[in-house]
Amino acid sequence: MSDITMSSAASAEDEDPIFFKLLFLFPVLGWLFKDAVHGNNEAKYYFCANIFVGWGLSIAFFGYPAIIIPALSLVFLAFVWIIGVCR
Questions:
Q1: Angle CA 16–20–23, to nearest 5
Q2: How far is Cα 55 from Cα 20, in angstroms, rounded to an integer?
Q3: DSSP 8-state secondary structure symbol assigned to residue 42
Q4: Whole-prediction pTM
């Protein structure tokens, strides 16, 4: 039974888009992304918790720039979404 799950997991990793394959190559973040995509159901929640804790720690260490940079990137995504909806 484990051979079947390993072969299906291996085939699922082979079918990943090229963006995911490149993202998985980063040392620490790649491991977290790979576990969130191919891991069990709880791995997604742990990944989200790690992102929020990391963001909170960056705010504690760097202050205002750690808050404003994600906000500025979300402005770009909001404009893309508005243009996409209004077409």
A1: 150
A2: 22
A3: H
A4: 0.61
